[in-house]
TrEMBL record:
GO MF terms held by the record: ribosomal large subunit binding
A UniProt-annotated Pfam family: RsfS
UniProt feature coiled coil, ranges: none
Gene name per UniProt: rsfS
Record-linked Gene3D superfamilies: Beta Polymerase, domain 2
Domain of life: Bacteria
SUPFAM superfamilies: Nucleotidyltransferase
Protein name: Ribosomal silencing factor RsfS
Entry keywords, A to Z: Cytoplasm, Repressor, Translation regulation
Assembly mode: Interacts with ribosomal protein uL14 (rplN).
Subcellular location: Cytoplasm
Protein source organism: Paramicrobacterium agarici
Length: 122
């Protein structure tokens, strides 16, 4: 099974929202084959703790406007790694140091990449 069209649409919305407030190094992965409870990860970097919070807020706002609700949120207070679980998509907003340390792309390197070309062209 691969990520659904709806999940891919949510990824595009989240990526565009993240980029609009300065997120960098956006990567989307289809993790549906490896995880039974989520279809996609969106991994982004905020330039500072404040920017990490702004990116997380923008993603929540835009996906909320599209009808996607937050299931769970972690790490907002620290501003170093905010995880936002929307059910089918999990958004990871990292401070640069934490992104390098945890290296989720390396851990999930066998997963197909979801193109963000559409979202990043906006």
């Amino acid at each position: 099974m691969t990520a659904t069209d709806e999940t891919r649409s949510q990824v595009q919305i989240a990526a565009a929202a993240a980029q609009s407030v300065g997120a960098e190094d956006l990567v989307a992965l289809d993790v549906s084959q490896q995880l039974p409870f989520v279809d996609a990860f969106l991994i982004v970097t905020g330039r500072s703790e404040r920017n990490v919070g702004a990116v997380a807020d923008a993603v929540e706002e835009k996906l909320g406007e599209a009808g996607t609700r937050v299931v769970r949120r972690e790490g907002r207070a620290e501003g170093r790694w905010v995880l936002i679980d929307f059910g089918d998509i999990v958004v990871h907003v990292f401070h640069p140091e934490e992104r390098d340390y945890y290296s989720l792309e390396r851990l999930w390197r066998d997963c197909p990449v979801i193109s963000l070309e559409e979202a990043l062209a906006q």
